[in-house]
């Protein structure tokens, strides 16, 4: 179970809300049962249930566990907002694959409109899906899901990463694997690295966006000789990078 960091106290942890209900009603948890609880960021523990009340389960921490399910390479998937519920698929599947974070963005050919005030429910839903996928995949962290940003904001954020791969459907030259392998080989042993993959919407990227991305420091890469659906491309890119890194 993932709980907020503030639910951890000296030697104990409290699980509330939907998770407490799940432990009590679905798992039929009882005092003495052992569970793994994580703060979704940096701490994971084995804990024993000491009290079950309506809406809250209290656990005694038995031991700190090593965070062994995360890759040393952190892959953030920037996805131009796709239609319908495709963003949910991207978040769910890329979380299972091992993505570290998601940045939805709006680009020239984005079809859907995003109104932050009206759509905060959608963001909550994405985060819920992400948490559930992280639990199912036995992740140690819950990837961060940001609110959609503009193309300009996304370009600015390129500076925060060690490598940015712009997945360009018209890229006939460099393929992602050929770009990633030498970059990984150049990393000191055991060192981590922050990678951003940028994926376009149903209608793809414009030539101007391609030029702006390269100007901002991205490397344009292909993902093979077939055109992937926009919701498939991020999964393929994340899997390829993590596979190449051996994780
Ligand atoms: N029309 C389809 C759809 O509705 O999903 C295909 C969309 S494809 C143009 C969407 C995005 O996926 C592209 O902008 C690109 O980022 C990525 N993509 C798909 N196939 C790719 C490929 N072979 N190489 C690189 N990127 C690719």
From TrEMBL:
It is an enzyme of class 2 (transferase). Its main location: cytoplasm. Gene3D superfamilies: 3.40.1280.10, Hypothetical PUA domain-like, domain 1. One of its GO terms (biological process) is rRNA base methylation. It catalyses: uridine(1498) in 16S rRNA + S-adenosyl-L-methionine = N(3)-methyluridine(1498) in 16S rRNA + S-adenosyl-L-homocysteine + H(+). It comes from the Bacteria. The keyword Methyltransferase applies. Keywords: Cytoplasm, Methyltransferase, rRNA processing, S-adenosyl-L-methionine, Transferase. It holds the Pfam family Methyltrans_RNA. InterPro entries: Alpha/beta_knot_MTases, PUA-like_sf, RsmE, RsmE_MTase_dom, RsmE_PUA-like, tRNA_m1G_MTases_N. One of its GO terms (molecular function) is rRNA (uridine-N3-)-methyltransferase activity. Residues 17-61 form the Ribosomal RNA small subunit methyltransferase E PUA-like domain. Its EC number is 2.1.1.193. Residues 70-241 form the Ribosomal RNA small subunit methyltransferase E methyltransferase domain. GO terms for cellular component: cytoplasm. It is found in: Cytoplasm. Belongs to the RNA methyltransferase RsmE family. Specifically methylates the N3 position of the uracil ring of uridine 1498 (m3U1498) in 16S rRNA. Acts on the fully assembled 30S ribosomal subunit. This is Ribosomal RNA small subunit methyltransferase E. It comes from Paenibacillus donghaensis.
């Amino acid at each position: 179970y993932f709980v907020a960091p503030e639910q951890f106290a000296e030697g104990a942890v409290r699980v509330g809300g939907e998770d407490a209900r799940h432990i009590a009603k679905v798992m039929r948890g009882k005092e003495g049962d052992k569970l793994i609880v994580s703060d979704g960021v940096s701490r994971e523990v084995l804990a024993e249930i000491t009290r079950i009340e309506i809406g809250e389960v209290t656990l005694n921490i038995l031991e700190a566990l090593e965070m062994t399910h995360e890759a040393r390479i952190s892959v953030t998937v920037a996805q131009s907002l796709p239609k319908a519920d495709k963003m949910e698929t991207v978040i769910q599947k890329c979380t299972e694959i091992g993505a570290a974070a998601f940045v939805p963005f709006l680009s020239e050919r984005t079809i859907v409109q995003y109104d932050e005030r009206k759509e905060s429910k959608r963001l909550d839903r994405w985060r819920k899906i992400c948490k559930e996928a992280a639990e199912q995949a036995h992740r140690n962290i819950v990837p961060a899901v940001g609110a959609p940003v503009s193309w300009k904001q996304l370009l600015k954020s390129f500076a925060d990463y060690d490598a940015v791969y712009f997945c360009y459907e018209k890229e006939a030259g460099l393929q992602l694997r050929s770009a990633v392998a030498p970059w990984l080989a150049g990393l000191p042993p055991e060192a981590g690295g922050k990678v951003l993959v940028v994926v376009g919407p149903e209608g793809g990227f414009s030539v101007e966006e391609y030029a702006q991305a390269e100007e901002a420091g991205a490397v344009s890469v292909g993902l093979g000789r077939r055109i992937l659906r926009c919701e498939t491309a991020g999964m393929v890119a994340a899997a390829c990078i993590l596979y190449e890194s051996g994780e």
